[in-house]
């Protein structure tokens, strides 16, 4: 019998399903409605490429494309923050409360953000949010919201001090992070900085000597991400307010009232009671809200800020206004809960998680740790915390599963103080699948 000649392998390009045919798959059509055609076509093209390369069977193109599609039409992905840094700037600072997330969704379509439904005409913008902020800080004569604290400072410096002097201590000329230096921002507005005192000591007399006809305001900045210790002196707001010039206080982290857990952290109510004319703060630090800048203080100053053309360039959008209002009116946001969680409660969660993992053969131990506030707030404050410790080789596969922990020696710590308890289950699942994929 003659041997049958072996056939040359079929040209894989001939068997690659055509794009139109794949896109006709109802599941991919539904995905295109949800995510947009561009993302779906890219996923299909990648699958077709895999067929050409011999890595995928032609009949699996639609399934492979579906599996590769992102969950949402954004490259921003949800992450579990197990670093123990509560307000991690690289991870988006404060997580929004369920009430705030819900408010964002509700406001995302067409809304009455600047429309008076009762009168049927244009209305003032974001009044509900401003009312909520006034109610949360009654000491403020008036309030305003912009895109972040840097915007609040830029607006105050531009509207009040352009071509004039801002008097500021040499100990408060700070860099916030990622190369953002406050003095650079302030001088970029056309204001001049009049530096007083020294790095470690500045007294009220130093300020008094610098005040003059060119002074627009005195600026007090909370050194929010470092501490100077030893031979130091700083003049408090209540000693500066009587000098005559308005005092603008950048309190940084956005506490509206004192928090006994953070005795060294300034708050808006106290700063205003001490005589600050204007307070600026971030909304996405200790307040636990969306990225926004808060301005609270004297009515006449806020009126000048609102009238300045720059305000229009700095005003926040409807989803931010909605999230901020829900944060101010709604239940305690996650950041506040994380800050106030007790160590026994954290230990109970860690033990439950470690036990569940041990049952799946994961080498998990419970260990006491120290968490921090982060995000340029409460420097030096150590929060007692509890973590689940895993062998170091879990670090990479967990990051691939969007869990970011903290390496300490040869162990990966999953610090539970920065994890929303609602995510404990997902955290456990990520560790289990990371183990299986090791
Ligand atoms: C964080 C911080 C800022 C910057 O605030 P953003 O909201 O990030 O613009 C400015 N000043 C102080 C003291 C801060 O802590």
From TrEMBL:
Belongs to the SelA family. Residues 13-52 form the L-seryl-tRNA selenium transferase N-terminal domain. Coiled coil: none annotated. It is an enzyme of class 2 (transferase). Transmembrane segments: none annotated. Its cofactor is pyridoxal 5'-phosphate. It is found in: Cytoplasm. Its EC number is 2.9.1.1. This is L-seryl-tRNA(Sec) selenium transferase. It comes from Actinomadura namibiensis.
């Amino acid at each position: 019998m003659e041997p049958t000649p072996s056939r040359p392998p079929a040209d894989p390009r001939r068997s690659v399903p055509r794009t139109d045919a794949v896109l006709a798959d109802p599941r991919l059509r539904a995905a295109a409605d949800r995510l947009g055609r561009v993302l779906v076509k890219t996923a299909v093209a990648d699958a077709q490429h895999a067929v050409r390369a011999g890595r995928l069977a032609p009949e699996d193109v639609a399934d492979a494309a579906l599996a590769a599609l992102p969950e949402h039409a954004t490259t921003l992905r949800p992450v579990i923050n197990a670093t123990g840094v509560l307000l991690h700037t690289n991870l988006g600072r404060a997580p929004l409360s369920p009430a705030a997330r819900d408010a964002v969704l509700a406001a995302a379509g067409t809304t009455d953000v600047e429309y008076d439904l009762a009168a049927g005409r244009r209305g003032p913008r974001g009044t509900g949010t401003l009312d909520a902020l006034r109610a949360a800080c009654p000491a403020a004569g008036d309030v305003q919201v912009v895109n972040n604290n840097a915007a609040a400072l830029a607006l105050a410096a531009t509207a009040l001090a352009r071509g004039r002097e801002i008097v500021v201590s040499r100990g408060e000329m700070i860099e916030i992070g990622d190369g953002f230096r406050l003095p650079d921002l302030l001088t970029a507005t056309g204001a001049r900085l009049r530096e007083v005192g020294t790095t470690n000591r500045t007294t009220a007399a130093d300020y008094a000597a610098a005040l003059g006809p060119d002074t627009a305001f005195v600026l007090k900045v909370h050194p929010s991400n470092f501490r100077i210790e030893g031979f130091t002196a700083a003049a408090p707001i209540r000693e500066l307010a009587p000098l005559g010039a308005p005092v603008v206080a950048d309190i940084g982290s956005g506490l509206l009232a004192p928090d006994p857990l953070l005795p060294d952290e300034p708050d808006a109510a106290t700063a205003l009671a001490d005589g600050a004319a204007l307070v600026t703060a971030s909304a996405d630090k200790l307040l636990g809200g969306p990225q926004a800048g808060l301005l609270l203080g004297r009515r006449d100053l806020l009126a000048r800020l609102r009238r300045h053309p720059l305000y229009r360039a700095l005003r926040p959008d409807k989803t931010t206004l909605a999230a901020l209002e829900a944060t101010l009116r709604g239940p305690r946001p996650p950041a506040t809960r994380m800050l106030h969680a007790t160590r026994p409660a954290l230990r109970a969660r860690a033990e439950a998680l470690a036990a569940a993992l041990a049952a799946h053969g994961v080498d998990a131990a419970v260990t006491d740790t120290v968490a921090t506030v982060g995000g340029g707030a409460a420097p030096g404050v150590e929060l007692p915390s509890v973590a689940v410790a895993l062998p170091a080789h879990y670090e990479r596969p967990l990051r691939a599963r969007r869990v970011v922990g903290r390496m300490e020696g040869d162990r990966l710590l999953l610090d539970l103080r920065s994890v929303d308890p609602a995510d404990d289950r997902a955290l456990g699942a990520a560790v289990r699948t990371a183990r299986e994929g090791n």
